[in-house]
Amino acid sequence: MKNFFAGILALLLPYAASAQLSVSGKVTDNVTHYALPGATVSIKGKSIQTQTDQKGNYRLNLPEAGKYTFVITYIGYNTGEINQQVAGSIRLSFSISSNTTVTEEVTVHGTRAGANSPTTYTNINKGDIQKNNTGRGFEYLLEQTPSAVVSSNAGAGVGYTSIRIRGSDATRTNVTVNGVPMNDAEDQGVYFVDIPDLASSVDNIQVQRGVGTSTNGAGAFGASINIQTTTRHDTAYAQLDNSAGSYGTIKNSVSVGTGLLGDHFTFDGRLSRINSDGYIERSASQLKSYFLSGAYYNQGTVLRLNVFSGYEKTGQAWDGVSEDMINAGNRRYNELGYIDARGTYYNNQTDNYWQNFAQLLLNQKITSDLSFSGALHYTRGYGYYEEYQNDQTLADYGITPQTVGGTTITNSDLVRRLWLSNYFYGATYNLNYHPSNKIDATLGGAYNEYRGDHYNNIEWTQQTTNIPPDYEYSRDRGVKKDFNVFARADFHAGNFLFYGDMQYRHINYSFLGFDRDLRNVQQDVQLNFFNPKAGITYQLNDQNNIYASFAVGHHEPNRSDYTNSSPASRPKPETLLDWELGYRTKQTWITAGINAFYMKYKNQLILTGSLDDVGEAIRTNVDDSYRAGLEADARIKFCDGFNWALTASVSRNRVKNFHQFLYNDATGNMDETAYNTTNLAYSPGFIGSSSLNFLPFKGAEFSFISRYITRQYLDNTSTVSRSLPEYFVSDVRLNYNFKIKGIKNIGVGLLVNNVFSKAYSSDGATYPGIYSGQLNNYNYFFTQAPRNFLASLSLRF
Q1: HSE of 66 in the Cβ direction (CA atoms, 13 Å)?
Q2: One fold for both 21-99 and 246-348+356-796?
Q3: Which of 159, 269, 335, 521 has the fewest CB atoms within 10 Å, i.e. is most exposed?
Q4: What whole-number distance in Å separates Cα of residue 755 and Cα of residue 539?
Q5: Percentage helix, strand, coil for the chain under 3-state DSSP, each rounded to 5
């Protein structure tokens, strides 16, 4: 390995030495003459660009003498273009004018990290999104970012998909769309299957790892994913996107936009559908969505209304494939399709959900130094999953047993629907004060309210029960009110950037739970969190900086943590102390970063195998656990037609003094085993990715993409028999874009997943217990498809 990297370095040194021509200078405001830090200076038609430092200085290395067009862009300013003949190293400064029209980047400015922030983050632009948007789940757009592990329940990328970042699942990952929180208020997960093909309406994404900056919604314990949707298009367009491939997967999407009408208005729309049979048996998906957006632009004002919706119907593949089935040679067998009375699988064992969103976004420039962004949002969700249940005790459903022919019917097969109907609404705001290049301050916050009804119906019983249609046997309501306010500032002093961030968050959650007498009663909790953050960045020169930060995060328990506990056993909120230290460089031939992190948890909630006082499996607070590691990512440009993007994460993820409880059928008790230090579940010690990209001619790109994930344990005992083996998987992606008369762009693509047909599982679960004196693991795995493909065709008019 050392020889390999030494060889790579030897190859790169001549290239680096050949870049002798340099252009340097300063970018300033043409009225105030303030320097503009973070402005982008690029060469038109070339993949050469850099950003100015905190003093507005930049430096570009050019491969050869010639005439170049320099392009200067900065948020809130008109784009500048200058043609310049370069025969040798020169100094060239630019002065650009403020744009009276506010740009929509202000919408997400309050919850995002800036170019030189002491925060560990990755940006994904629209070009990278489009290359990877073939119809698979949204999480696959993030698969090549550091410390990310992506999985598909159905095994082929369509339907329920998931992501873990630094070992943390979606319930610990804060997700916002245009600054509006997307995590479910009660279980705190994010289900992108409910808004299929969102990627087709996304302009850019920022992934922050660790606690990150203050944001709206659930606390970030592993990462934050900040999504910005469609922004301004000045010219009219129409676009057709189609994909088709293995396992009956097909995607159709049509997008249209008016461009700028009368210098003030734009309208954009999209309609999509995605269908797939899935790799796992009975895991088919039928997905639909639309996205509508209208905007008004005036001097200093942008007002945008987004209305979007999604519908999903999927087979229930969320229990994966049992280890016994995999060992028997069937990696696709879904045991969740219960046998009905006729001895066949119940064909409507499905999950069904509708979700509708509305966002009213306002960006307002108040003065030259002060701007405002705010949002009113409303989400309506409703749906159910239907399942066949064998031999159920009717008394458990509140049904009075019937006597037929002298026989009392106490049990029956039945079909039930478990419903969720909820409303989520609120407001977010940010005031940004930027009087000079030395100070950038933000005051922001949000108030959100959630109301969710959980109710369950019986649709059919095999035996006579004399119940009405849609018999409702249970109902409860959860109400959650979430308020936060934060203040954040960047202060530049010489080569230093100082960062401070303080957030106060209050939560009031009312829910149905068990009291000390094991009766279901309405309860509530009041939580108050203070989350301070601080950091410093030192600019070594125009291309290099180092940063360090410390942040505190808090995270409330989920709905099930509360409803499965009494006040005596109620879980505590989790606390995270996050230290980050990093180095970033941005050269003409390489963009790279490396960072170290140490995430110290207090009262982290983990499954132990124990049961609560009403017999339900619970998560328990553990006093001491941590994650520590190194992350690196780089994009190396060997020449104009060849580059290499790669990431690597090495981490140690441990829980101290862990106690596991296993049910023993011989005694009816829980057997306890104590562990001094073990691995945290779902936390591989190494995660790596690689993308070798070859551009043989204009518009064409060939990519060889690989991922390597080491062993993941399914519980917190470091037991190899309850783990996911390591895997190395490679894909091939081909893209070619060209245009002909009458069509602005034709994009043809081919994605071959798992090109070497590696048999692997990317996720799983375990339910160990002691039966007849023997330990049984009862492992279930989310097996992923062997070699499969998706071909795509895009037409833009």
Answers
A1: 10
A2: no
A3: 521
A4: 43
A5: 10, 60, 30
The first and second tokens of residue 224, run together, are 């934050």
Q: What is the pLDDT of residues 389-400, one digit of tens each?
A: 999 999 989 999
State how far the alpha carbon of 154 is from the alpha carbons of 232, 516, 710, in Å. Answer: 36, 41, 22
Tens-digit pLDDT profile for residues 424-456: 999 999 999 988 888 999 999 999 999 999 999
Name the nearest CA neighbour of 47 among 765, 595, 639.
639
C-alpha span between 284 and 143 (Å, rounded): 23
CB 783 within 8 Å of CB 321: yes
Give the DSSP H or E segment for 18. helix 2-18
Residue 37 has what pLDDT? 80
* Separation between Cα atoms, residue 725 and residue 258, nearest integer Å: 51
For residues 372 and 362, the answer to whether their CB atoms sit within 8 Å is yes
For tokens 């989350």, what's the residue? 531
Fold of 21-99: Immunoglobulin-like (2.60.40)
Quick one: which of 13, 77, 3 has its CA closest to 39?
77
pTM score of the predicted model: 0.87
Please state the separation of Cα 197 from the chain's center in Å. 14
With beta carbons less than 8 A apart as the criterion, state whether 512 and 563 touch: yes
Domain ranges of the chain: 21-99, 246-348+356-796
CA–CA separation, 281 and 271 (whole Å)? 28
- From CA 311, how far away is CA 384, in angstroms rounded? 12
CA atoms within 13 A on the CB side of 298: 6
State the DSSP string of 369-433: SEEEEEEEEEEEEEEEEEEEEEEEEGGGGTPPPEEETTEEE-EEEEEEEEEEEEEEEEEEEEEEE
Distances (CA, A) of 526 to 73, 142, 418, 480: 46, 35, 28, 10
Distance from C-alpha of 797 to C-alpha of 786, rounded to nearest angstrom = 36
Strand 686-694, strand 642-664: pairing: antiparallel
Assigned fold of 246-348+356-796: Maltoporin; Chain A (2.40.170)
C-alpha distance from residue 393 to each of 328, 418, 613, 737 (Å) = 33, 17, 22, 61
Phi, psi for residue 108 in degrees, rounded to 5? -105, 0
Query: What are the tokens at 664?
Result: 């023993």
Determine contact, residues 691/644, Cβ cutoff 8 Å. yes
SS3 563: helix
CA dist 204 and 397 (Å) reads 48
Indicate the DSSP class of residue 568: G
Which residues, 6 or more positions from 474, have their beta carbon under 8 angstroms from its beta carbon?
398, 454, 455, 456
- Give the model confidence (pLDDT) of 318-340 as tens digits: 889 999 999 999 999 887 766 76
Which residue is associated with the tokens 């100070």?
439
Which residue, 328, 132, 157, is CA-closest to 241? 132
> Which token pair is 394?
């009717």
Handedness of CA 310, 313, 314, 316 (dihedral sign): positive
In order, the DSSP letters of 120-148 are: -EEEE-HHHHHHH-SSS-GGGGGTTSTTE
Identify any residues that bridge with 83 across adjacent strands, giving them in sequence order: 69
How far, CA to CA in Å, does 499 sit from each of 48, 167, 549?
29, 27, 9
DSSP annotation string for 320-366: -EEHHHHHTT-TT--TTS-B-TTSSB-TT-EEEEEEEEEEEEEEEE-
